[in-house]
Design goal:
Helices cover 30% and strands 22% of the residues. With 352 residues, it is an alpha/beta fold. Strands 3, 5, 6, 7, 8, 15 and 16 form a seven-stranded mixed β-sheet that branches. A six-stranded parallel β-sheet has the order 11-10-9-12-13-14, with helices on both faces. It has a three-stranded antiparallel β-sheet with strand order 2-1-4.
Length: 352
């Protein structure tokens, strides 16, 4: 089978290579999946660059997050799923714990509690993106921060994939959003998506605008994907006792020095106003949640997507052989569509 392998830590287009590898064999409690589509996430590229929260042993198959495929075989005594069934694979590696097989290959083995059957009408493009960004949005809003209907929620990177999903989910749940963007050109687009208020850091003061929007009661909950000075300003803008969950550091997107990944918090704000700044990492959540909780959350996301509450934009397909082009596209600012590696499947789709 074909597999896209990173030979060492480095720039992806410099260390990735296409290899032929044997098809793996599933053990008890596992399934062999023939991959149909798998996205290229920024975190996948961070792993290759050595700047993510874990580092695999190289050489290693790329892609450590999610894919959609069909069950080709089941391990001995494995029940509950059927050969030929189309499933989402939540391949996010648990931390701490063993890593899952990379998704940038034609076949992979996965534990059955990481598999979620998907309906026929859900496209491969949408299905292969279920287990990371929509799940992150749901967990942050509804579980980590437990934002209630009528409350304000501040979020940075509102134009990102997760940011757009948060806007959709908040509208469904009756939550009001204050959306932070860095370009004036993004303001109208975020409002059209349903964002209640938009703050553009290009020409607006974040602290002053939050106060103007929320009034004396202020805002008590925020999610941040930028870190750095903007993340610090979000924390400072919250009301006393407020809480911000940090799930990314876009302000240092290409930074590989861990010491540079900072949030310069105001000590007065943290001490005297007892604000909380804490991290959220989907990998760690997968490592601490029970298999039942994982499947419950994934099932909820599947329902939100199939019911049209959450909309996943179509991805841009690339065959594995065009990986240099696909990765360059993934690194292009404001590229829009998520790049996907797609694999040929000559079986009749009408048989699903």
């Amino acid at each position: 089978m074909r597999a896209l392998v990173a030979g060492a830590v480095g720039e992806p287009n410099g260390v990735l290579r296409l290899e032929s590898r044997p098809v793996p064999t599933p053990e008890a409690g596992q399934a062999l999946i023939r991959v149909k589509a798998t996205p290229i996430h920024a975190s996948d590229l961070h792993v290759v660059r050595g700047r993510y929260g874990f580092s695999p042993e190289f050489p290693d198959v790329g892609g450590h997050m999610e894919c959609v495929g069909r069950i080709e075989a089941l391990g001995p005594g494995t029940e509950g799923l059927k050969i030929g069934e189309r499933v989402v694979v939540a391949a996010v590696p648990a931390v701490p714990g063993p890593q899952m097989a990379g998704t940038w290959q034609e076949y992979l083995v996965a534990a059955t509690h990481r598999l979620l059957p998907v309906p026929h009408h859900l496209s491969d493009s949408s299905a292969c993106q279920l287990a990371v960004n929509p799940l992150t949005a749901l967990l942050l809003v509804a579980r980590e921060l437990d934002v209630r209907p009528g409350e304000w929620l501040v979020q940075t990177a509102a134009g990102s994939t997760v940011g757009r999903l948060v806007i959709q989910l908040a509208g469904h749940l009756g939550i009001r959003t204050i959306n932070v963007v860095r370009r004036r050109s993004a303001v109208d687009e975020i409002k059209a998506l349903g964002g209640d208020e938009v703050i553009c850091t290009e020409d607006e003061d974040l602290l002053r605008r939050v106060t103007e929007i929320a009034g004396p009661a202020g805002v008590r909950k925020a999610i941040d994907c930028v870190a750095g000075p903007v993340g610090a300003q979000v924390s400072q803008a919250l009301a006393p006792g407020g809480e911000v969950a940090v799930y990314g550091a876009l302000s240092t997107h290409r930074q590989t020095d861990p010491a540079a990944l900072t949030i310069p918090l105001s000590a007065r704000s943290v001490i005297y106003e007892t604000k909380v700044v804490r991290g959220f990492w989907l990998n760690r959540w997968f490592g601490t949640a029970s298999p039942a909780d994982v499947l419950d959350a994934l099932s909820e996301v599947r329902t939100l997507v199939t019911d049209g509450v959450l909309s996943i934009p179509p991805g841009r397909p690339f065959p594995l052989e065009r990986f240099t082009e696909a990765i360059s596209f993934a690194e292009t600012p404001a590229h829009g569509a998520k790049p996907l590696f797609v694999f040929d499947d000559d079986r009749d789709e009408d048989e699903e």
